[in-house]
Predict the structure of Aromatic ring-hydroxylating dioxygenase subunit alpha.
Amino acid sequence: MLKNFWYAIAFAHEVEHRPSKVTCLGQDFVIWRRRNGTVACLSDLCVHRGGALSMGTLVEDRVTCPYHGWEYEADGSCVRIPANPPGRGIPKKARVDSYPVVEKYGMVWAFLGDLPEERRPPIPHVAEHGDPSFRPVYWQTVLEANYERAMENVVDAAHTPFVHGSFLGDPDKPEIPDYEVTQDEWHAEADIRLHPPVSKGLWGMLAPKRLDHVVVTNGWYLPNVVKLHVRLPFGDLILYDHNIPLSQNRTLVKLVGYRNFFPGRWADGNALKRIRRIFEQDRKVVEAQRPELLPYDLAAELHLRSDALQIAYRRRRQELAEQGWFLDDGDVVVGDVPRREATVIPSPARRDNPELARAWVHKTRGDDHEPARSAE
Ligand code: FES
Ligand SMILES: [Fe+2]
């Protein structure tokens, strides 16, 4: 799992003026919408005794810990300790990590890392969002699999005739012509020719004849977004999957599907039904993959020309791992076992306040250059 990226953590329409818990990279966060409309995101770990802030309430725009009532501002600083008599100051270390938040493309994105603004990788550009010719639908599900396995599945064209033969891909024509990968630092995509079967039902009415081929565009955007653009005979269907790592082996997939045909609300249910059907076909194979985690070593699995997009992803993640952007198992809270340490991802404020860099959480990760170890 990678830190120092913008992660989509919620659909924008889900976030209200009350604390709610979200999980990403195996860590819990509390988010809420402030009265000015912006969203705040803090580590869900009260610095006093580790209470879960997401179980608290809001006082104006501040979140209150449910245990002893400490109040935190959106920047993570504690501004009220009810047990203190009037006049007693608040220690500088009484604060929690606060993460930058941006709302874009119908999602709330939190920057989980400590890089200053100018060094942060970009949020993937979604050209269809806000374009009146496209209509979005939103759907989410929990996948009992690692998020990188889920990502690779979406960019993998060769599985379509076998897993989705009824929708896309023809098992009698499973060859994947060689394709060209277009890549930059944070993203890669490719146009790939597939042979589709005849559409059925509502969509079949628009395209009764079998086409020789369709071109799909498959792509990944670091750290966890994948795009599937299917050019159907009657229009475009473009899916963005945000693969949110709840832990190493559980993924919350938040999916936005844009279409520029049947633009009315009445067709949303049908579009969602098809998206779910495709996803459920993938679920079976992805949840059964072993090893559960994506191998680090490129030589650990056999690759073909048709796996070029996945190879590009694995190479790039390797580079980032070498750069120190990886969170490994030891750093991330996973599963339901009792914890000796609770970890948080360093936020920009730690970098800005070196004297506090290791101060305000029970156990913390180190910075870019030091592996995880912490002080009090
Ligand atoms: S644990 Fe949060 S105020 Fe005590
Ligand atoms: Fe699939």
In short: The chain has two domains: 5-119, 135-294. Helices lie at 147-155, 160-163, 201-206, 268-287, 308-322, 348-352. Residues 367-376 have pLDDT under 50 and may be disordered.
